[in-house]
Write a structure and sequence with these properties.
hpI Integrase, Chain A, three-stranded antiparallel sheet, 14 helices, mainly alpha
């Protein structure tokens, strides 16, 4: 940014009137107008005020307080980002809490120092620390737009899975057979159709909970909404706010039979409602539906492991990657990189080829 005191530029209008144009240079190096004035001193005051706004020093904590109001996102996304950022604001970097750092003073080495504290003092996992830094990066990108920050020191910073500072290792994702998942669902009793939907469709928890009867025609599910804390929001994890949000997921014949066999309720449009006809809150779902099925079946399955298992087994059966990614609601790259796991089925084939 230019640091010298710029002065107004004299202009003569076609009518012969003399005016003074106030222009300044912002933090991105772009020339901006602060207005046109009849008096030179008014134009100079506008230039000085513009530089005062552009060069205002704002700390991370102050910007965080007003950030959600000026850059709102989907409710759950915003809540998650804010929660993650609050985990870092009190971390001391060079003896100063992150919240008190001026945005313009932060550099990449400070982001790396933050990572060190998150891993060694707070004992976070690689994914947990990475999520916090990513949330800070999102906020900083908005700070750059607002001309509060000039660079994003958090962008691209991540933690390797083999980082020697890690004390908390990620839980391994296990792959279960469809037979195991169906046995788990059967142990759910009256909730079997609901639990089997996780196994047979690969849907996320937040996508199963708000399903309505109109979303199911016996052959496919229309996945149009996401639920959190008993409330539904239009769109899914990857397409909130887009026109025509949602996707189609095929329904196997046995699951369709189980759903059709359930008595129809006229007090709610939901496919899998609570006893009072409402959308399940996640904690109540785990307590009343999932945990009892775990105990009765003896299978410690997690909902997202059913999703991983679904994608892994269907890829092993050579279902087209593009179709499967569309069904799962992800890009092909994300599906292959995060949801596909080795099954060990090729070992005998490898031995035969080698001889």
């Amino acid at each position: 940014m230019s640091r010298h005191r710029e002065t107004p530029v004299r202009r003569v209008n076609p009518s012969g009137t003399v005016v003074w144009v106030a222009r300044y240079t912002n933090s991105a190096g772009d020339r901006k107008s602060a207005g046109t004035f009849r008096r030179k001193r008014d134009a100079q005051a506008a230039i000085d005020a513009a530089y005062g706004r552009a060069e205002r020093v704002e700390n991370v904590g102050g910007y965080f307080q007003r950030w959600p109001r000026f850059h709102p996102r989907a409710e759950r996304t915003q809540r998650t980002n804010e929660h993650r950022i609050t985990r870092a604001l009190g971390v001391e970097i060079d003896g100063v809490p992150l919240r008190e750092w001026a945005y313009t003073d932060l550099r990449r080495r400070h982001a790396l120092a933050l990572i060190d504290v998150l891993l060694t003092e707070q004992g976070r996992s690689a994914l947990g620390a990475t999520h916090i830094v990513r949330a800070l990066s999102v906020m900083t990108e908005d700070a750059i737009t607002d001309e509060v920050a000039e660079v994003n020191p958090f962008k691209g910073v991540a933690v390797r899975a083999n980082d020697p500072r890690l004390s908390k290792r990620p839980r391994p994702v296990r792959v279960f057979t469809f037979e195991q998942m169906h046995a788990f669902a059967c142990a759910g009793g009256i909730y079997e159709p609901m639990l089997r939907t996780f196994a047979d469709t690969g849907m996320r928890l937040g996508e199963v909970l708000p399903l309505r009867r109109e979303d199911f025609d016996g052959l496919v599910f229309q996945v149009r909404r996401t639920a959190h804390n008993g409330r539904a929001q239009e769109g899914t994890k990857t397409d909130h706010g887009q026109p025509g949000a949602g996707r189609i997921v095929p329904c196997p014949a046995r699951l369709a039979e189980l759903i059709r066999a359930r008595p129809a309720r006229i007090d709610t449009p939901l496919l899998f409602p609570t006893s009072t006809g409402k959308i399940w809150w996640e904690r109540n779902f785990y307590r009343d539906v999932w945990a009892p099925a775990q105990k009765k079946s003896g299978l410690d399955i997690r909902p997202h492991e059913m999703r991983h298992s679904y994608v892994t087994h269907l890829r092993a059966e050579r279902i087209d990657d593009a179709d499967l990614a569309e069904i799962a609601g992800h890009t092909v790259q994300t599906m292959i990189g995060h949801y596909t796991h080795a099954l060990g089925r090729s070992f005998d084939q490898v031995r035969e080829v080698i001889g």
